[in-house]
Write a structure and sequence with these properties.
The protein is mainly alpha-helical. It has 24 helices and two strands. Strands 1-2 form a two-stranded antiparallel ribbon. A hairpin with a 5-residue loop joins strand 1 and strand 2. Helix 23 packs antiparallel against helix 24. It starts with 5 loop residues before the first helix and ends in a 5-residue tail after the last helix.
Length: 359
């Protein structure tokens, strides 16, 4: 088998895999898995050919990994499959894996992993595992010594500006982002997150804020391409206000100074919901027509409607879940909800909600 040059290897189409549970391979979605099984052998042969070529560049990578060891723990994802792949190629043993997993933070786990890789001289296994887990942007960062080149395309880590936007507005994003009711499934079907990430983020014992916080922590380590696709998925699910917060907000800028409709709710609007929470739970009527109107106006999606319409829920629980979703609406969705309440003969609820807002 001929050895490709570095440029030739990275110019080839990437054979990305979404790591699933156990040794299974999950492609774009669970539904397409069986359809893709017949392609596995050909894909594996292509991957192995590329990796064998990569192994000829051990010295090329080890010096670059050492040069970037300070930044790599912040951009690589040690969880959700990478450690398992390293074990499969002989880059780690089980004892080392346990030591890495004992670290409390994601950055700490990545740092411990990197220290072991360099101490044990497992740099080519490390590159192979990154490649096979779809972290091509991390490999490109190593290749470029942290300097972007157009040949990397969208397979490059997020810029410091984008990370600062997420970090600076972490609480606000956590309060407005809705990961349930379609977002995770859409990200999974587009190959942006893998099955392990989806199951971790869907953990039913977590509070919705914790779901959002965990997702944002994973998002920080996305490539530019995956970040852009995530923004597209948010917009498709009527979360334009969250997408705008992620991509446009600069330091010192306040979205609430803009009267556009795709903005998060103002503090006064949320305070009205929170202050009158018990009264709203006992007086709002979600079940009889309101959800149908909200669905017809694209305020909620079908998955939200199914979630709220679960037959085993009491009316109080249904109303409580609806108010939890309402707090994360954009101005536009909130205004449409008020309109739907009036159309459902719930003017008293609409008037109460409007008192806290400036439209």
């Amino acid at each position: 088998m001929s050895v490709l040059s570095i440029e030739e290897i990275f110019a080839r189409p990437q054979h990305r895999w979404c790591g699933g549970s156990g040794d299974s391979l999950f492609y774009q979605s669970r539904e397409t898995y069986m359809e893709e099984m017949h392609k596995e052998r050909e894909h594996r042969i292509a991957i192995i050919g590329d990796l064998l070529s990569l192994l000829h560049y051990s010295n090329y990578f080890v010096s670059k990994i050492k040069a970037q060891r300070g930044k790599l723990p912040e951009i690589m994802e040690a969880d959700f499959g990478l450690l398992r792949k390293l074990i499969s190629v002989g880059g780690l043993n089980l004892n080392e894996k346990e030591k890495i997993e004992a670290e409390a933070t994601r950055s700490g786990r990545s740092k411990r992993l990197l220290d072991l890789i360099l101490a044990n001289g497992k740099h080519h296994e490390f590159i192979a595992a990154l490649w096979d887990s779809g972290q091509i942007h991390v490999i490109n960062w190593i290749r470029g010594n942290g300097v972007y080149s157009p040949e990397y395309g969208s397979d490059w880590p997020l810029e410091d500006r984008e990370i600062k936007v997420i970090d600076r507005n972490f609480d606000k994003l956590s309060s407005n982002l809705v990961t349930a009711h379609g977002l995770l499934e859409k990200l999974f079907s587009n190959g942006i997150i893998n099955y392990e990430q989806m199951e971790f983020l869907k953990n039913e014992t977590k509070h919705s804020f914790k779901h959002s916080e965990d997702f944002l922590s994973i998002l920080r380590r996305f490539s530019r391409g995956y970040f852009s696709l995530t923004l597209e998925c948010l917009r498709e699910l009527n979360q334009d206000h969250v997408a705008r917060m992620m991509e446009e907000l600069e330091e010192g800028e306040d979205y609430n100074s803009d009267n556009g409709s795709d903005l998060p709710l103002e503090r006064e609007q949320i305070e009205v919901i929170d202050r009158k929470y018990d009264w709203l739970i006992h007086n709002i009527d979600v079940a009889h027509g309101l959800l149908d109107k909200l669905l017809s106006k694209n305020v909620i999606n079908f998955q939200m409607m199914e979630f709220l319409n679960i037959e085993t829920k009491t009316s109080f629980k249904r109303n409580e879940d609806f108010l939890g979703i309402l707090r994360r609406f954009s101005h536009n969705s909130f205004s449409l909800t008020v309109k739907c309440l009036r159309e459902s003969n719930q003017d008293h609820i609409a008037e109460l909600l409007e008192k806290g807002g400036r439209f």
